[in-house]
Write a structure and sequence with these properties.
Layout: H1 2-26, E1 30-35, H2 42-58, E2 61-66, H3 71-83, E3 88-92, H4 100-108, E4 112-116, E5 125-128, H5 131-148, E6 154-159, H6 164-180, E7 185-191, H7 195-208, E8 214-217, H8 220-232, H9 237-240, E9 243-247, H10 251-257, E10 263-268, H11 271-288, E11 297-299, E12 303-305
Parallel strand pairs: 1-2, 1-3, 3-4, 4-5, 5-11, 6-7, 6-8, 8-9, 9-10
Antiparallel strand pairs: 10-12
Helix pairs in contact: 2-11, 3-4, 5-6, 7-8
Length: 317
């Protein structure tokens, strides 16, 4: 009897564990994602589409928020995510100290936090960049272009002064350019993080420096607007020797590279895959209650993409 009782107990425990595993796997989650310019910044549009697809496949709900307006928008987004019952929050984290109390409130409720763009001690997982290295790579690519091609060696920069980490990137862009092109000159620096701002910046660049040779930008968004403004003004790389060097390797930027014209180079930071990985880790932590501390922090890789190596990020069909 004891033998059968033990066997029955073992079977019951096995069935119970199996049912628990199934319940964990089938748990429906709500995910909140807050990005700056979530519907207007090219790379963030790509990220959102990818995370939406992953949520749809798993049967999860995705809540999104645009936090382009800064701290107050972030506070509102976090409040909405917490009150909306989010199990996971992915947040572009730029000024954590301003809303640390809300992040702590989320953690206290068992919400898993993924920090994008900032190495956070509060979040379970972080993915972020070395803005000094990204900026320097952009500047060096522009310097290499000027050194290899005849032209004025005059440059303009699209920055985004509202975010400190992008100011750091902007300064590194200028450093990378001037250190590698000693005869170079930065003529104009304008805020242009989004395409509409880039159009205005591009028009102003041409007025301030009709013979400019390169435009460097902290992201693809603003530089894509510059590209449109330059095309509207009848400019081209073949006739005017102008090159645009930016960052993020968004789908729109890769399309522009394939024009084989002024959009010359974009830094691939593997952002969509990095955010997908952040999502996967946070979802796993929410489902299992376990965090892998060995991958708490991940730094984006940097790979300059030109038309010549575009297959690194867009395999040939």
């Amino acid at each position: 009897m004891k033998k059968w009782a033990a066997l029955a107990l073992t079977c019951a425990m096995t069935l119970g564990l199996g049912a628990g595993s199934v319940m964990a796997e089938e748990k429906s989650l709500t995910v909140g994602m807050a990005l700056s310019g979530i519907t207007s910044n090219a790379i963030f549009i790509d990220m959102t589409k990818s995370i939406q697809a992953k949520c749809d496949e798993a049967g999860y709900k995705l809540m999104t928020a645009d936090i382009a307006e800064g701290v107050q928008a972030t506070v509102t987004a976090l409040e909405n995510f917490i009150n909306g019952g989010c199990d996971v929050i992915l947040i572009q984290n730029s000024e954590e100290e301003a809303y640390a109390d809300l992040l702590q409130s989320a953690l206290d409720k068992g919400i898993v936090i993924g920090s994008y763009d900032y190495n956070s001690d509060m979040a379970q997982y972080s993915i972020y960049s070395s803005d000094e290295e990204i900026g320097y790579a952009i500047g060096k690519a522009a310097a290499d272009y000027c050194n290899e091609n005849e032209g004025s060696k005059k440059a303009c920069i699209c920055n985004y002064s509202q975010l400190d980490f992008l100011v750091t990137r902007e300064k590194a862009i200028e450093k990378g350019f001037l250190e590698n092109c000693p005869d170079g000159e930065v003529v104009s620096v304008l805020d242009a993080g989004y395409p509409n701002e880039g159009v205005t910046a591009g028009e102003n660049f041409l007025q301030a420096c009709p013979d400019l040779q390169v435009v460097m930008g902290i992201n693809d968004g603003g530089c894509l607007g510059v590209y449109e403004a330059f095309k509207a003004a009848g400019k081209s790389r073949a006739n005017d020797g102008i090159a645009i060097i930016a960052s993020d390797a968004s789908e729109d930027a890769l399309n522009a590279l394939e024009d084989d014209d002024m959009y010359y180079c974009t830094m691939d930071l593997d952002l969509v895959n990095q955010v997908n990985t952040l999502y996967d880790r946070c979802v796993e932590a929410s489902l299992t209650g376990e965090v892998d501390e060995s991958v708490h922090s991940t730094v984006y890789p940097i790979n300059p993409i030109y038309l010549s190596n575009i297959t690194d990020v867009r395999p040939a069909e």
